[in-house]
Design brief:
35% of the residues are buried. The protein has one domain (4-227): SOS response associated peptidase-like (hypothetical protein yedk fold), CATH 3.90.1680.10. The protein has helices at residues 17-20, 94-99, 178-182, 189-204; strands at 4-7, 31-34, 39-47, 54-63, 81-83, 101-106, 108-114, 120-126, 131-140, 148-157, 168-170, 208-211. 13% of the residues lie in helices and 32% in strands. With 237 residues, the protein is of the alpha+beta class. The chain is built from four helices and twelve strands; from the N terminus they run βαββββαββββββααβ. The strands form two sheets. Strands 3, 4, 5, 6, 9, 10 and 11 form a seven-stranded mixed beta sheet that branches.
Amino acid sequence: MCGRYVVARTLGGELPELLSSLPGWPAQYENFNIAPTTDVPIVVEDVETTTGEVIRHADLAYWGLVPAWKQSFTQRPQPINARIETVATNGMFRQAFRYRRCLVPASGYYEWHVGADGVKQPFFIHAPHGLVFAGIFEDWGTDTRDARRSMAILTRPAVGPAAVLHDRLPVMLTPDGYSRWLGHDFASAGEAFDLAMAQSEHVAGSLQFHAVDRRVGNVRNSGPELCEPVAPSPSVG
């Protein structure tokens, strides 16, 4: 599951340098409490029509997938996550999974866990050098005046340390998987699935987490203090 996350270069660990220095990256972008329906940075690849050169660049996309066949951009549902187990066959996602994959850079994300005392506690989950979620995107609207790009983050069954918090994780990639994920050279949906599962299992083993202030539950709150550990830290189990 991924319902809130952070993009902030000033945060310890920062973002993967390979991505945050790309053309089009919004240099001043910082958000410590990103919620669905927010415009967020993603990374895509385009082919230059005259030279055939593959160009990797950043763009802003609305978090909540809106397929091109929707009658309006506000029409629901607008899923923020897509399960890797069914993304290749689900009519909402399959075309984007096949042709429009993206990278979603993050400094970390939040997850809520209900402890033995019945209290729902938020945790900040992160890795030493930032995270990159596997995403899919869609372009809605043919008129440039109303054209919008939207995206969803892929999820998988939880593995690794953070599995004690929730039964789902974002699908996460390592730098050596970026080009494969963005490209179109998968022989089958199964090959893309295998890459995503193997890479995310590797990243999941490096995840760290700590409890944070419950103020993160209010989307109007944002700031680096939301990512700081609270004391005493509640037990997980």
